[in-house]
Amino acid sequence: MRPNRILIIQTAFIGDVVLAMLLIRQMCSFSPKVAIDFLVRKANECLLAKDARIQNILILDKKEKIKNLFKRIREVRKVYLDVIIDVQRVCSMSLLTLLAHAKVKIRFDKNSSSWSFDPTIAHSLADQVHEVDSNLKLLTSLTTVANLKLESQVSKATFDSNEKHKETPYLTAAAASEWKNKQLPAHKWIAFMEAIESQITVYMTVGSDNKKRGDEILQQISVKSLVTRMPERFY
To answer: Is residue 212 assigned to a domain?
Structure first.
């Protein structure tokens, strides 16, 4: 079956959306005229805003999760889809998928509601398979997965505006994490940035929710000319 309209669901963090973006290219390669809707959490829609392959971006505001979840469910139920690809392994997205009108509903098997999906795809952290490859397994019931590279579509204006940042050697530092137990302490970031050679520019990226943390790190760095904090949505 070559689907005409699909919905991809990934409402976790920004890195998880990046890891799921190869599904877009794979589906367009398999079915060039496919219309793709993509459901993301609020603030991550900027990753897809300039992507001409996306027909609709649906946004889940997790600050009002229950209210917004049912709003998205009503929105999705107005559309008849060929395929839903639920990249996540959480019950709320399973509920949305379960209530949606779709011919085929695909998800991983690591969920209490996986019995309601056909097909379900095995997922194991013990296999040491990269998450991009795990996500691509979700397509194996539809097509043969091609050897394609991950890509992101941005406007020419956005691409050109970033050219100035590449005039000198640089590195990026993501100094904050939604998972606080995986977040490097601020003083470690400061020591790391101050140890970098002076000819290398550091672009520090933090989300809007972590602006305060980014400002605190900048204030404590002794050589402030070495580090630039990028705008929350510079891409």
So the answer is: yes
